[in-house]
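Design job #97: recover the sequence.
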């Protein structure tokens, strides 16, 4: 069964609270997960941010909408309890409770459209969708990141081979590999280099050196190219190498890299772009949006 959206959860949540007792958010989540027969994978599925289970988030927002309608109250931190208004709603035996159903309560209209509680606005329309506000924000963020990744890869593919080799060094430095920019940028991608484009220290003390091969290609990198790189490493008596490309690797190349004694890490274009985004290489922060929540401990008397 797919994870129910937060509006589908509202009536079952209110029914669960119908006994009038206080129920913790955790036991409420467990009850609803069992009621909707969610398996362990569905219960553990995270939001794209990786900070909260998707189902927990939807139960939380379901409770928020019921509270803003006056049907539920929070008697103490992390607990739900039905109100007299909520009990009355259950007596009416509604088939379902949705955002549209809740709009008959003035408190809810103030929640979804504080600028005008008598008109249908875009805020109302947002509450008719299945996703929670966090999911809507994260989906928008994901789309922005996806578009950014495509633009970055196109830009990287259009740069010169020399620029690409230095870009790779910048990414590895930003990831925390050791040595100064001058040392790390020792690009040896010249004739007679044996297939090595650069070197970088594995740590700041230089206890080991990693050799780099950078290929600004459109076609996939096959096993022969990896074999040449391994041979170049052996010529340098090196044990570790990173092969980076703007395209991808064939299955044969990947399988070969996993069976040899030398430690070879393969980084394709998609992974390289993500590393650039994570390390802010060639990027700047355009906007920052902060989502703030109440610190309940602050208000304890």
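Job complete. Output follows.
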């Amino acid at each position: 069964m797919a994870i129910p959206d937060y509006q589908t959860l509202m009536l079952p949540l209110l029914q669960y609270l119908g006994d009038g007792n206080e129920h913790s958010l955790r036991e409420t989540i467990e009850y609803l997960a069992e009621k909707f027969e969610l398996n362990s994978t569905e219960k553990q599925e995270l939001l794209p941010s990786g900070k909260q289970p998707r189902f927990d988030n939807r139960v939380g927002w379901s409770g928020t909408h019921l509270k803003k309608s006056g049907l539920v109250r929070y008697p103490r931190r992390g607990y739900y309890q039905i109100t007299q208004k909520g009990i009355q709603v259950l007596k009416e035996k509604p088939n379902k409770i949705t955002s549209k159903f809740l709009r008959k309560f003035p408190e809810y209209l103030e929640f979804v459209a504080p600028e005008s509680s008598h008109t249908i606005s875009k805020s109302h329309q947002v509450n008719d969708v299945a996703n929670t506000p966090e999911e809507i924000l994260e989906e928008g963020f994901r789309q922005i990141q996806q578009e950014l990744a495509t633009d970055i890869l196109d830009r990287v593919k259009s740069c010169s081979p020399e620029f690409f080799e230095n870009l790779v060094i910048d990414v590895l430095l930003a990831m925390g590999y050791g040595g100064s920019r001058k040392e790390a940028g020792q690009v040896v991608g010249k004739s007679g280099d044996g297939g090595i484009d650069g070197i970088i220290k594995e740590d700041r003390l230089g206890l080991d050196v990693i050799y780099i091969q950078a290929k600004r290609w459109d076609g996939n990198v096959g096993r022969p190219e990896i074999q040449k790189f391994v041979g170049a490493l052996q010529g340098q008596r090196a044990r570790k190498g990173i092969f980076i490309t703007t395209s991808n690797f064939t299955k044969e190349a990947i399988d070969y890299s996993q069976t040899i004694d030398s430690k070879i890490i393969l980084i394709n274009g998609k992974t390289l772009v993500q590393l650039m985004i994570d390390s802010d290489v060639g990027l700047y922060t355009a906007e920052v949006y902060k989502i703030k929540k109440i610190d309940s401990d602050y208000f304890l008397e």
